[in-house]
């Protein structure tokens, strides 16, 4: 079984069992606290806001629908058909389009770029969940999608997030209710060094335009009742101007 096959099956299993309601999944925080915050970092670097916006790794489409309220043409793409079923059911008006996509498969990425042309890309928390052999092909796919005029905003957990997640998972009462299904399906985040992220983008032919740190909010509660926040890094990249 290939790396991608294992990855696809893990996500199909997860989304096949995931509840429908927004906020029931560990990372499914409301857009005002996620994509809304990220967009304020992204928009100053968009050369052409009129380009299609691709929400890569869109899951159940919560952030995709928010992006569709801000941009004319938005496509939510995900490797999991079950995730896209959630997204379409939650979007009966068809605010966005949805596409099953294996972002490490060059032919699939090229086909989407041929259809859309250059695009702006929003990707949150996907790279760190990939197997090591898939990380550079994923970055290469991002470069294909943005082409010459697009930009990508990449938000990933920082190195210091892993011990925090392990601490939650190993609590005396077991993993919290929303983290448990993630671990059950083998979707525990891998270790991606903070400096490896810009290196992947550089190797793909993209130039780093901006970077920073912020807290990535989850829908889970800590034992003291506060919302679990995970440290993350963000970068904006595109072709050199």
From TrEMBL:
InterPro entries: Methyltransf_25, SAM-dependent_MTases_sf. GO terms for biological process: methylation. GO terms for molecular function: methyltransferase activity. SUPFAM superfamilies: S-adenosyl-L-methionine-dependent methyltransferases. Keywords: Methyltransferase, Transferase. Residues 54-146 form the Methyltransferase domain. It holds the Pfam family Methyltransf_25. It comes from the Bacteria. This is Class I SAM-dependent methyltransferase.
């Amino acid at each position: 079984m290939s790396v991608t096959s294992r990855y696809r099956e893990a996500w199909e299993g997860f989304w096949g069992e995931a509840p429908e309601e927004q906020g029931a999944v560990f990372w499914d925080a409301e857009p005002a606290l996620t994509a809304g915050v990220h967009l304020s970092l992204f928009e100053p670097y968009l050369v052409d806001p009129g380009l299609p916006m691709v929400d890569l790794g869109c899951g159940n489409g919560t952030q995709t629908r928010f992006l569709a309220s801000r941009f004319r043409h938005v496509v939510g793409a995900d490797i999991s058909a079950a995730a896209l079923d959630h997204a379409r059911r939650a979007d009966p008006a068809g605010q966005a389009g949805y596409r099953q996509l294996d972002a490490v498969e060059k032919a699939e990425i090229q086909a989407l770029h041929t259809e859309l042309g250059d695009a702006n890309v929003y990707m949150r928390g996907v790279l760190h969940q990939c197997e090591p052999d898939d990380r550079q092909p994923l970055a290469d796919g991002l470069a294909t999608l943005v082409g010459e005029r697009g930009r990508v905003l990449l938000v990933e957990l920082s190195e210091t997030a892993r011990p925090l997640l392990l601490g939650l998972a190993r609590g005396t009462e077991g993993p919290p209710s929303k983290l448990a299904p993630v671990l059950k399906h083998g979707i525990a985040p891998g270790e991606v060094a903070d400096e490896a992220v810009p290196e992947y983008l550089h190797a793909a032919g993209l130039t780093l335009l901006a970077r920073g740190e912020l807290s990535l909010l989850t829908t889970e509660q800590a034992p003291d009742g506060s919302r679990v926040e995970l440290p993350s890094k963000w970068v904006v990249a595109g072709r050199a101007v």
